[in-house]
Amino acid sequence: MLPIDPLQSEHRMIERMLGLLSEELSTMKKLKRVNLNLLEAAVDFFRFYADRCHHGKEEFILFRKLEKKDLTPELQKIMEELVDNHVKTREWIDNLQSITRRYAKGEKGAIRELQQLLEDMTVNAPKHMEKEEKRLFAPAMQYLSQEEKDSLVRDEYELDRTLIHEKYKLIIEKLEKAPGEATQKTKIIESGR
Ligand SMILES: [Fe+2]
Ligand SMILES: [Fe+2]
Q1: How far apart are the CA of 137 and the centre of ligand 2, in A?
Q2: Given this model, what pLDDT does residue 181 score?
Q3: Which of 3, 16, 108, 167 is 20 to 30 A from 31, comparing alpha carbons?
Q4: CA of 154 to the centre of ligand 1 (A)
Q5: Ligand that lies nearest to the alpha carbon of residue 4, given by its number in the listed order
Q6: Residue 80: which CATH number?
Q7: How far apart are CA 155 and CA 139, in angstroms?
Q8: How much distance in Å is there from the Cα of 86 to the middle of ligand 1?
């Protein structure tokens, strides 16, 4: 097992969510309606799975280790670009949540903003994952000893193990502060930040 194996499996899951969003985008354009349940689930998925769990493994485990290595300037640059893309993804997630809420409250014009956002996400996220897999993951493995690879895999498992507890602890804390508000689905989704 290599530390990039879980990352690549997670990419396949993210692709499945992006596939659902692509279908939703076509339906939105055709029928001029929004599947709010899907978009709320997508916010939760991108916030916890794609960002906390997957980007967490990339930025705080793999990239952090690679930063200590004498990488080529090209690999260094690719890694910096990938981190910038993650910042952009966090903006997408926040925007997806806020625009979806505005639409749910009756702002029908928000559908155009949702279409633009989904277009951007579904076109650019696959490019990001392809860049990671083709231009960073494989070459990066050459900089790591077997011991270091094993240690990174253990760190990845540890992140997975703690994440669900972190998520539901945040939900409970939010509910304890404002039970009425937090019982709304959107509030539960928001509690991850
Ligand atoms: Fe990434
Ligand atoms: Fe990734």
Answers
A1: 9
A2: 62
A3: 16
A4: 19
A5: 2
A6: 1.20.120
A7: 20
A8: 6
Question: Both tokens of residue 102?
Answer: 């505005």
- Which amino acid does the sequence have at 158? E
Find the domain containing 157 and state its range: 4-190
The H helix count followed by the E strand count for the chain is 10, 0
Q: What is the pLDDT of residue 193?
A: 35
Q: How far is the CA of 7 from the centre of ligand 1 (A)?
A: 9
Buried b (16+ CB within 10 A) or exposed e, 91-105: ebbebbbebbbbbee
Q: pTM for the complete prediction?
A: 0.90
Q: Residue 63 CA: which ligand is closest?
A: 1
Residues 120-137: pLDDT tens digits?
A: 999 999 999 999 999 999
pLDDT given for residue 82 in this prediction: 98
pLDDT-flagged residues of the chain (< 50):
183-193
Residue-wise pLDDT for 151-162, tens only, equals 999 999 999 999
Total domain count for the chain?
1
The two three-digit tokens of residue 1, written as one number: 């097992």
What's the CA-to-centroid distance between 132 and ligand 2, angstroms?
6
Asked whether 110 and 99 are in contact (CB, 8 A), the reply is yes
Q: Which two tokens stand for residue 4?
A: 């990039």
